[in-house]
């Protein structure tokens, strides 16, 4: 909803833009926690202590996760990745190589402290929306990836771990 609002300045007028940038940190933190959580699935102490065996199990787990994801979700992830990339390129073009900032009550477009040009109040707001759009486009990808990993990962990981342990049991 936030990302969609960046395309409609009148609709986005009520959004607190600066605090919304903290959402980027929150979404990335959630994604990182998801990846850590899925990699912390229980494994036997004998596997945990053997680096080569742990790597082999990790590779099998990742393969199982990718194969267990239904095609509709793989398609959504591919679309989200393509959209994120296109959105990034277009947003960077819209930002003209800089970012909006305010100094002494005046609005500027700047790049690492170098002023590119002065902005009107309306332009400043539009550039803030472009910047929010740049980041929020990736929220879609990371949120979807977190959902997919959480939804399909644990079953795949547990199944592969059990199969792996069965293969290692003496007959």
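^ Assign residues to that structure.
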């Amino acid at each position: 909803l936030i990302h969609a609002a960046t395309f409609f300045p009148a609709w986005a007028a009520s959004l607190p833009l600066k605090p919304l940038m903290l959402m980027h940190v929150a979404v990335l933190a959630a994604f990182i926690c998801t990846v850590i959580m899925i990699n912390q699935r229980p494994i036997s102490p004998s596997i945990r202590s053997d680096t080569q065996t742990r790597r082999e199990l990790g590779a099998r787990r990742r393969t199982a996760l990718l194969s267990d994801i239904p095609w509709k979700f793989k398609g959504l992830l591919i679309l989200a990745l393509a959209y994120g990339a296109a959105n990034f390129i277009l947003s960077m073009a819209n930002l003209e190589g800089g970012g909006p900032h305010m100094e002494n009550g005046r609005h500027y477009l700047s790049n690492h402290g170098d002023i590119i040009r002065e902005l009107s109040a309306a332009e400043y707001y539009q550039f803030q929306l472009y910047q929010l759009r740049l980041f929020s486009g990736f929220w879609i990808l990371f949120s979807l990836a977190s959902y997919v990993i959480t939804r399909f990962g644990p079953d795949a990981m547990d199944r592969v771990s059990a199969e792996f342990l069965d293969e290692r049991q003496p007959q």
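The CA atoms of residues 17 and 45 lie 48 Å apart.
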